[in-house]
Amino acid sequence: MKTRRLAKRWMAGWAVTLGMVTMPAESLAQITITAKDMFSKEGQYYNMYSNFVGHFSEAAGEEVEVFDYIGEAGENQVWDFREGPEDEMIRFDYVKPAEIDTDVEFDGATIVERATFDSTGKQKSLFLNMKPGVGRHVYGFHDEGIDEVNPAIPFSGRLLDFPAVIKYGDEWNASTTYEYVTRSPLLNFESPTKMVYESAMKVDAFGIVMLPELGFHDCLRINELVKNVAFVKIPGVIDDWQEAITQYTRNYYWLCKDMGVVVQISSNPEDVPPADEFSVAGALWRQFENNHGKSTETAQPVEGLEISLDPNGKRILLNWKKAENTVEYLVQYSDNLAANSWRELKKTTGNFVLDDISSEKHRYYRIVSLE
Fold this sequence. Notes:
This protein is an all-beta fold and 371 residues long. It contains one helix and 22 strands. The strands form four sheets. Strands 2, 3, 4, 5, 6, 7, 8, 9, 11, 12, 13, 14, 15 and 16 form a 14-stranded mixed sheet that branches. Strands 17-18-21 form a three-stranded antiparallel sheet, with no helix packed on it. A three-stranded antiparallel sheet has the order 20-19-22, with no helix packed on it. Strand 13 and strand 14 form a beta hairpin. The longest helix is centred in the first third of the chain and has 4 residues. The chain starts with 32 loop residues before the first strand and ends with a strand. The relative contact order is 0.17.
C-alpha cells in the first residue's frame, strides 16, 4: 500500500550548506507574528528555492543533511539559509477560488494559495480563509499528486494551521480528515483511502534568519509534529475502514514580519516520531522574493463587548471578540469619567477579564487593542 502525507504548504525542501552561526553578545529581538504578516490577499506572491524530493515535482532532488542547521530550541539564535539547493523554484500566488478549475465547493474559503513548480509548470493549491482575530483556516486542497482523477479534496472540518497571533512559547493543536482514492494503474486497482491528520505545534525558538537575496530578519521558529493515519477500503474484500499505516513527520517553520513562512525543513515520514534534532530532511525551502511589503494595517477596535455580574454581586466579567491584528488588550476602568481618570485593570492576550467590585458601585470600562 502506498500512502501519501499532507504537505503543510506543498513545499518539499531545500538544503542549506551553512548552518547555525555564533550567537552575538547582545540579546536578539523577540517578535510577535500576526495575521497581517502572512500572505492572504489577492495578488500577493512569494518565491522559494527547493531541493524537491517527493511527488511534488518530476525534478530530481536529494535528501538534505540538516542536523547542524536545525540547532536547539531556545532564545537568541541565528540561522543562515543564504546558500542551498536550487533544483526547483516554486512560486506561491494568492488568487480567488474561482481561478481553480474544480467542481468541488470549498465552503468558507475566500482565497487560494496556488503553488506553481518551475520545472514542470504543475500546480497545487490550498483553499484558505484568514479569519479576523482567529487565524488561517484551511478547507482543503487541489493536488493531482494525491488523486489525479479527482484532485479537489475538501477537509471534513476546517484546519487552523497558523493562529492570528503567534509568540515565542505558544502551543496549539489541529486535526482533520480527508478522503481520496489510491490508484494502481498497473494492477487496475482502486482503493478508497481516508487520512486522519493531527498536528501539534510549538514556537520553540527565536532569533535571526538569513535568507538568499532578502538579507537577515528577526524570526520565530515553529516545531511541528504531524501524525498521519491512513485507513483503506478494498471493494469486495474490506467494506469497512481498515487501518493501513501510521506515519509521523516533523516540520520546522521560520516566520518573519511581513514575509510569512520564509523557511521550512521537513523530515522524511517515519513509523515513530522523528527526533527534534533529526539529521536528514526530505524537504528544505528558502524564500528569496516576495511582494508583501510592509503592512500598514493596524490593530482593530474590540467588538462584541459584554458585561456580566456574578450571582453574588461581587465580581464583573467582561468578555469580547478578539480583534484583527491585535497582540494584546489593555483593559481600563474609570469610576467617574473625569479627565485623566482612566486606570489600568489588566493587560491580557485573552478575550476576557474579571473585576472584583461590588454591584453597589458604578464603574466604566474600556478596552484598547494593542499591536
